[in-house]
Write a structure and sequence with these properties.
There is one protein chain. With 748 residues, this protein is α+β, with helices and mostly antiparallel strands. The chain has 17 helices and 33 strands. A hairpin with a 4-residue loop joins strand 1 and strand 2 (11-17). The protein starts with a strand and ends with a helix.
């Protein structure tokens, strides 16, 4: 260690010299202990810091956030590599495991925030990782200045080489030994100005793409310890049920089966931090034996109160609440006077929208590999949140913070399911009981039957239109079961997962009311590609089309008139909504889909827009109907996320989220009867086929120089309502197309 630099949030940059003369650079916390020298060699294995450069000029960069398919394993290292002026062709990337140190019994996170698949990876890392790369570049320049006898400020870096004004060149590899011994500057080295970026903003393929398509990618489910027992579970069909009878004789007679154990959710623990339901575990020497033993278990489960619940009954309860006059659980927002505005109405419109329960259906089922030694825990976990997984392990083991090692390989899909760690708790519980390493594997049926689902919701929206065709009132009521129940959130904040006080069109309508009615359900619930409040986009954007239809108006013009002049609108939750940027993405998709032909198109055209945490998105869909057969002819999406790190990766994220949203809208719903989920596989929960989806998703990326916003699930909210609006135009309006066209042409 040669010194430290003060960084924001009480964090430090630290430089270490490895045993093989490698330069190691990474963000570490104040008072951090040195890493063992054995980890700092030039072998590119088991590295803690972000950057390592060996004497041959090869560069290793660690990706701190789990990559669940979002591309952060490419985009985050490219931020560092750009500031470092590294040759990307000589960069290797590895996923960093959990970085934690012991601060008097409390965890100190070495890498700061480690959270994947939530849309916040790049915004959270933007400043920090640029500083990491800038520090490494500064050290190399200082070393080159000594070698070349030229002041550092007259040198420049390019593709892993330092270049002098007279053309002399020295490679990074030849400088690392000297660079690692240079004392750090007391000030943070300046980061690049945007015109000097070479990698940021340039397209790059996913660093794991070749390994994925050739089957060489390693996921957590592929890992094992030689002496680990394989554990498979039979969960109680009801989260509040109990085990009435068990006979294990036939199971224990299966060759290879070692033990049969029972698990119970820990009392008073939040959802997602303990077992999701009572379970019986079969532990065996191999997977086949474990599954064979599980099939021979004789079990009888007794339902709890949830045994009488059904998704149909909950929907009827929601409808009854919205039909009645009961006060809402929470009045989320109340601008102006909706009731008074209703007395001045020239026209009124009301519509109800119902959205189903949804499962995550990740490609990689839940699994966890754990070894518990006397004073150390080692895990390989497909998690989106390593620090949350650490909290579960630490509570169950009582180990010191830095004695818990969590490795996170590439994750086979997350979508929010792996923000919860019930499966980690189950694996650790079993490892404690058998005093051996455990490899817990869930089956596909378990994944469907014991998920943290996105809850169904019912939306009732009323619009009040004035005599000048302006929208003067909006009354939205929503009923759903909050995803925050039993998660330590106060009752008066349970609505925050279900809706937003500043969601569209709040702030754009003078008289605006939003109410939330809380429903009770025993079904576990959680986020799915964003918090459930994003589902409001479907109801809002579909309803705006219905308003346009009632007024016999172009839906694009309805939206643009509602947005008004470009301006910054203060949001209730902080920050601003840039109405100009939102209108811009709307116009971009309209132009690309040829919205000018909206009235004359044989097919239906639909459009929708939304905003999420400083990012803006719009979709336009063209759909045709041949009888009952729906064909999605085209899908266009425009996004504005500020500065783009990797355009190719961003386009992939947007296209993937669009197809996922369309698949969900076309095919997917979870139902439950007598408290039990009815879908158990991809046959009963059918993802859309290629034939059902558009041949391509046209992605328009708005260039920008603002700090980057997240894009992980940005395209999810607007694809489905754009499709619904397109189908509405292609089918429901068709029977009145000629008189409607004449009236629209007269008005326009």
């Amino acid at each position: 260690m040669s010194g430290q630099i003060q960084l924001s949030r009480r964090r430090f940059l630290q430089v270490l010299t490895g045993t093989a003369g490698a330069l190691i650079v990474g963000i570490r916390t104040a008072g951090a202990v040195d890493l063992p020298p054995a980890l700092l060699g030039g072998t590119f294995q088991a590295l803690g810091p972000y950057v390592q450069i060996d004497s041959d000029g090869n560069v290793l960069i660690g990706a701190r956030d789990p990559d669940t398919g979002t591309g952060v394993a490419t985009s985050l290292p490219r931020i560092i590599a750009d500031e470092l002026d590294a040759d990307w062709n000589r960069v290797s990337v590895i996923p960093l495991g959990l970085g934690v140190e012991n601060d008097h019994g409390q965890p100190r996170w070495i890498y700061g925030r480690q959270l994947g698949g939530t849309g916040g990876s790049i915004p959270a890392a933007w400043q920090e990782l640029r500083q990491v790369g800038a520090l490494a570049r500064w050290l190399l320049l200082q070393a080159a200045a000594r070698r070349l006898g030229v002041p550092a400020d007259r040198l420049r870096c390019e593709s892993g080489t330092v270049i002098a004004p007279d053309g002399r060149r020295v490679t990074y590899g030849s400088l690392v030994e000297v660079a690692g011994k240079i004392p750090l500057t007391k000030s943070v080295p300046p980061v690049k100005t945007p015109e000097r970026y070479t990698l940021i903003g340039a397209p790059a393929g996913d660093v794991d793409a070749h390994a994925i398509v050739t089957g060489q990618a390693s996921y957590a489910i592929d890992h094992h310890y030689g002496d680990a027992l394989v554990a498979v579970l039979v969960h109680c069909p009801w989260p509040d049920g109990t085990l009435a009878r068990i006979d294990t004789a036939a199971t224990l007679a299966v060759k290879g089966v070692v033990k049969v154990l029972q698990l119970q959710p820990e009392k008073d623990q939040p959802l997602g931090e303990t077992a999701i339901a009572p379970a019986v575990a079969v532990l065996a020497q191999d997977t086949w034996s474990a599954l064979q033993g599980r099939d021979k278990l004789e079990l009888e489960w007794k339902p709890g109160a949830s045994g009488t619940q059904s998704s149909y009954a909950l929907e009827q309860q929601a409808q009854a609440l919205l039909d009645g006059d009961d006060a809402p659980t929470t009045r989320v927002r109340n601008d102006g006077d909706v009731d008074a505005a209703g007395k001045k109405a020239a026209r009124r419109l009301e519509a109800t929208y119902v959205q189903p329960w949804l499962a995550h259906a990740t490609a990689e089922p839940m699994n966890c590999l754990v070894r518990l030694d006397k004073d150390r825990a080692s895990l390989v976990v497909p998690t989106q949140a390593p620090q949350r997984a650490w909290a579960v392990v630490q509570r169950l083991t009582g180990l010191a913070p830095d004695h818990i090692d969590i490795r996170v390989p590439r994750v086979g899909g997350g979508y929010g399911r792996r923000l919860d760690h019930d499966y980690v708790a189950e694996a650790v519980m079993l490892a404690k009981l058998v005093d051996k390493p455990v490899r817990l594997l869930w089956t596909r049926a378990q994944d469907f039957g014991h998920d943290f689902y996105r809850a169904a919701s019912v939306h009732r929206i009323s619009a009040i239109v004035g005599r000048k065709r302006e929208l003067i009132g909006w009354n939205q009521r929503m009923a759903s079961a909050s995803a925050l129940v039993q998660r330590g959130v106060p009752d008066n904040r349970l609505w925050t997962s279900e809706t937003r006080a500043d969601q569209l069109p709040a702030g754009l309508v003078p008289n605006y009311r939003s109410d939330w009615y809380g429903l009770e359900s025993a079904m576990p619930r959680g986020p799915m590609r964003g918090m459930p409040h994003l589902s409001n986009a479907f109801a809002v954007e579909s309803f705006i089309d219905e308003i346009a239809h009632m007024m016999r108006e172009d839906p694009l013009k309805t939206r643009l008139r509602l947005l008004g002049e470009p301006r910054a609108l203060a949001l209730a939750g902080g920050g601003t909504l840039d109405l100009g940027r939102l209108a811009n993405v709307l116009k971009l998709v309209a132009d690309r889909i040829e919205w000018k032909n909206w009235l004359r198109s044989v097919n239906g055209l639909g459009i929708a827009c939304w905003h999420i945490d400083g990012a803006y998105v719009a979709h336009a869909i063209e759909a045709s109907m041949q009888g009952e057969k729906l064909t999605i002819e085209r899908a266009v999406c425009a996004i504005d996320v500020g500065r783009v790190i990797n355009p190719l990766g961003l386009q992939g994220q947007v296209a993937g989220a669009t197809l996922d949203a369309l698949s969900t809208a076309l095919n997917l719903a979870v139902t439950y009867k007598d408290g039990q989920v009815q879908q158990h596989d991809y046959k009963s929960y059918p993802l859309a086929s290629m034939a059902q989806l558009p041949n391509d998703v046209e992605v328009i990326t708005v260039p920008g120089d603002r700090s980057p916003a997240g894009a992980s699930f940005l395209a999810m909210p607007t694809a489905a309502p754009a499709l619904a609006n397109a189908v509405f135009r292609a089918s429901a309006v068709r029977v009145r197309r000629l008189p409607l066209m004449k009236e629209l042409l007269r008005l326009l």
